[in-house]
Amino acid sequence: MRKTNVATTLRTPAELVAHRLARPADLPDLEKVAARYAVAVTPEIAALIDPKNPDDPIARQFIPTSDELKETPGENADPIGDHVHSPVAGIVHRYPDRVLFKLVHVCAVYCRFCFRREMVGPGKDSALPDRAYATALDYIRAHKEIWEVILTGGDPLMLSPRRLSEVMTDLAAIDHVRIVRLHTRVPVADPSRISEAMVHALKVESVTTWVALHANHVSELTEGARAACARLIDAGIPMVSQSVLLRGVNDKAADLEALMRGFVECRIKPYYLHHGDLAPGTAHLRTTLAHGQNLMRQLRGRVSGLCQPDYVLDIPGGAGKSPVGPNYLVRQDSSPHEREVRDEMRYRVTDYCGDVHLYPPQ
Ligand code: SF4
Fold it and tell me: Is 245 helix (H, G, I), strand (E, B) or coil?
């Protein structure tokens, strides 16, 4: 049932107040937030928000609050270090075999926890200029180790099918590029954009297209979102998920379980559960790493392997992603000396119930 009925995307605090998605008393603070970080709530997302619920998990993701004005130590406008790995505009080359290709800086919705929140929004450069696009393609052509190109941004599915088709064709013409992956929130935020023309644009010969869907709560997987994903998957485009661990959104085992089961039911393989990045003004949405590990342990005990994402942390400064899920295997001995001299070393392995078992060294 539609909880908040709006006809067009809401883009200002005043519009949020007018639709009871924010309180009039908060307007001055929200104007300050909106002056720095973009706001957009599509009709499909607004429809999921219960204005009477102060803890609504969808509102927490998309409706700005005065908490965003509080910056905490360690937060950073470029929390995962994109800039230090950007050899030319639009490209982030952090790992040898893949690059990020940032074509647009706009999104259908603006997430309050976005790690690129300083870079995205209507006031920023909306698309990579033609010359920069050509230079970025030259860079990919010149680096034969690049096997995978990840279109991100902003949201690449904000591009028109015509433009996406050109981009896909350009990438497919580069022999060493075998995979193009697109990271998007569009199937959830604006499912009608996943039209026949869009699906057609994403399917090109010579490269395999993957789509990674960003969703954080099972209620985002509406009938419309599921149908949009099915259009992609039925066309032969495999999908994976990415979610961000968020306080008050998916930081309980039951919520995470429902979300991961939802993905798998949609034929989307859970891929990443990101620990919240140190983006400015997002401390109220982050959990601790210990809490995240505990949730992953619980998830292991509740759902099948199909439903298990990797819990990952983007190391601040640009050192890349590391899995930070709980460790299920430890050496029984602890001293390095003991490790060298003992030939009866045992591993301790923890099962899905939390019980510990010994395992021989080989
Ligand atoms: S859709 Fe992605 S890039 Fe856009 S605001 Fe949300 S997290 Fe950031």
Answer: coil
**Residue 67: alpha-carbon gap to chain centroid:** 21
Considering Cα of 320, then 75, then 242, then 87, what sign does the dihedral take? negative
How far, in Å, is the centroid of ligand 1 from the Cα of 248?
A: 18
Reported as type and span, the H/E element at residue 313 is strand 310-315
3-state secondary structure of 295: helix
Task: Report the alpha-carbon distance of residue 263 to residue 225 in Å, rounded.
Answer: 11
d(CA 115, CA 318): 13
- pLDDT per residue as tens digits for the range 8-20: 999 999 999 999 9
For residue 142, the CA-to-ligand 1 centroid distance in Å is 29
pTM score over 0.85: yes
- DSSP category for residue 309: P
Digit-coded pLDDT (tens) for 286-326: 999 999 999 999 999 999 999 999 999 999 989 999 999 99
Amino acid making up residue 184: T
**Residue with CA at minimum distance from ligand 1 atom 7:** 114
C-beta of 273 in contact with ligand 1 (< 6 A): no
Sheet containing 320-323, strands listed edge to edge, beginning at the edge strand earlier in sequence: 91-95, 98-102, 148-152, 179-184, 208-214, 239-244, 268-274, 310-315, 320-323
